Amino acid sequence: MLSRRIIPCLDVRDGKVVKGVRFRDHVVMGEIVDLALRYRDEGADELVFYDITASPEGRSVDRGWVERVARVIDIPFCVAGGIRSVTDAREVLYAGADKVSINSPALERPELIDELAEAFGVQCVVVGVDSMRDVDGEWRVRQYTGDPSKTRSLARRTIDWMVEAQRRGAGEIVLNCMDTDGVRQGYDLVQLAAARAVCTVPLIASGGAGVAEHFRDAFTRARVDGALAASVFHSGAIAIPDLKRYLRQEGIVIRLQEAVGHE
Amino acid sequence: MSVVLVDAGGTNIGSVRYALQRLGVDAALTADAERIRGADKVILPGVGAAAPGMARLRELELVDVIRSLTQPVLGVCLGMQLLCEHSEESDTPCLGVIPAPVRRFEETPELCVPHMGWNQLSPVSQHPLLKNLEEGDWAYFVHSYGVPLGDYTLVSSDYGGAFSAVIASGNFHGMQFHPERSARVGAKLLKNFLEL
Q1: Measured by CB atoms within 10 angstroms of the end CB, which terminus of chain A is less buried, N or C?
Q2: pLDDT digits (tens, 9 = 90+) for A78-108
Q3: Do A255 and B48 touch (CB under 8 A)?
Q4: CA atoms within 13 A on the CB side of A52
Q5: Which residues pair with A126 in a beta bridge?
Q6: What is the Cβ-side half-sphere exposure of residue A106, based on CA atoms within 13 angstroms?
Q7: Which residues pair with residue B140 across a beta bridge?
Q8: Is some CB atom of chain A closer than 8 A to the CB atom of B180?
Q9: Where is the active site (chain A) (predicted)?
Q10: Interatomic CA distance for residues A173 and A201, integer angstroms
């Protein structure tokens, strides 16, 4: 049976791991390789590095850290942020990342999804979707959420965008529910369940994890393939080994590292 | 011991190389026929699609080179599929050194394709490649096409039905999952391959 995945997300700025609440007020959490190893040892199934380093004018961001991570890490990892072209993606994938995740650039130019899928295969292409509920009750996508002063609301409905992204070649979708992000009151199960209904590729929940029950609910009620979280892991509020044992007790298929303790 | 990684253009080549380095082996990345023929172990990594993968091997004039190898060869993910007879992916004839077909996973409301994530391994036969592998060990898979069970199956896994996770025929071996991304289980299997 395929395991549900627990995915810590590490926001990276200028080569350090940072975390903000509701995308604001970033504080340094630690060194990338140290944190990556810590999560690997604790039993993370996968890591996402969200690179929020601002691109200097006309130059690409220094991603030397991707190779440093790839050398030491033996679980899959995905790099998000600032990937705007096949060239950008190739650099990150050849440095050792398993997947790239694209968000705002895909909204600017949806053909980017097709181009990446054609160049590297759909399994390398993750589309990140930032979504918020509008006053009319519809979920719509947000763009440029990395910088609150530039964040834009789009007319595009979240569900429509997810359908289009899959048609173009997304191999996985991370749905970040911004209404619940950073406040630890639980994942947006209603929205995730609606997303699940149109998602034939793996779906990853993001935004709102506070306690272990929130992960359970995302897996059992919204049937997501993976659950992504940041602050609850970075702060130590939830320890991954405890979380995974709890989820397994709840009857969810979960990979436990203890199964390989015979070297 | 000399180990070479065949440079067939897959994006996971770096990751496989680092995984071997963690085991103390510095594998050369090469597309040179003589170096491949002369190596003690040959690894064909690969991520991407079958047709461009085969096209690249033809372009490098490595099709017959790989077919004629007699030392242990390991194909990883797409690399494993390229060792098979034929892939349904773009109806592609492959290297044909393992008598197995490659078929697409059928997606259903319960079954996402690609099959992406950690799944459990079930050894179904005895083989030195499987030393210390236990029922239920976890490995990381990412693929949309797979090999059904057959005489060549050493390890199976289950995704809407059993399929081949590790296959072998003679000196040719294949792993459908990514040992370079399968934590300790992957390291154990790579080590076993190096010790064949």
Answers
A1: C
A2: 999 889 999 999 989 989 999 999 999 999 9
A3: no
A4: 21
A5: A101, A172
A6: 31
A7: B118
A8: yes
A9: 11, 130
A10: 7
Helix (H, G, I), strand (E, B) or coil at A177: strand
Identify each DSSP E strand in A15-171 by its residue range.
16-21, 24-31, 47-51, 77-80, 99-102, 125-133, 139-143, 152-157
**CATH number of the domain at B3-194, out of 3.40.50.880, 3.40.50.1820, 2.40.40.10, 3.40.50.300?**
3.40.50.880
Strand B92-93's sheet: what is its strand order?
Answer: B92-93, B86-87, B101-104, B145-146
A248 backbone dihedrals φ, ψ, rounded to 5°: -65, -40
Per residue in A208-226, pLDDT tens?
A: 999 999 999 999 999 999 9
% of chain A at pLDDT higher than 70: 92
Cα distance from A137 to chain B (closest Cα, Å)? 27
> What's the confidence (pLDDT) of residue A258?
53
Are the C-beta atoms of B97 and B109 separated by less than 8 Å? no
CA–CA min distance A113, chain B (Å)? 15
Q: What burial letters (b/e) apply to B153-190, b meaning 16+ CB within 10 Å?
A: bbbbbebeeebbbbbbbeebbbbbbbbbbbbbbbbbbb
Residues 6+ apart with CB under 8 A from B111: B105, B159, B160
Cβ distance A124 to B140 less than 8 Å, yes or no, reads no
- Among A94, A122, A260, the residue with its CB nearest the CB of B14 is A94
In one-letter notation, the amino acid at residue A18 is V
Q: Is the Cβ–Cβ distance between B139 and B165 less than 8 Å?
A: yes
| 3-state secondary structure string across B109-135 | CCECCCEEEEEECEECCCCHHHCCCCC
Preceding omega of B179 cis (within 30 degrees of 0): no
pLDDT in tens, B56-88: 999 999 999 999 999 999 999 999 999 999 999
What would the pLDDT profile of B20-63 be if each residue is shown by its tens digit? 999 999 999 999 999 999 999 999 997 778 888 899 999 999 99
Report how many Cβ contacts below 8 Å link chain A to chain B. 114
pLDDT exceeds cutoff 90 at B180: yes
Pull the structure tokens for residue A27.
């504080």
Domains and their CATH numbers in chain A: 5-260 (3.20.20.70)
Q: Which residues fall within 8 angstroms of residue B104, CB to CB, at 6 or more apart?
A: B88, B89, B113, B144, B145
Strand partners, B158: B162
Please report the ipTM that was assigned to this predicted complex.
0.91
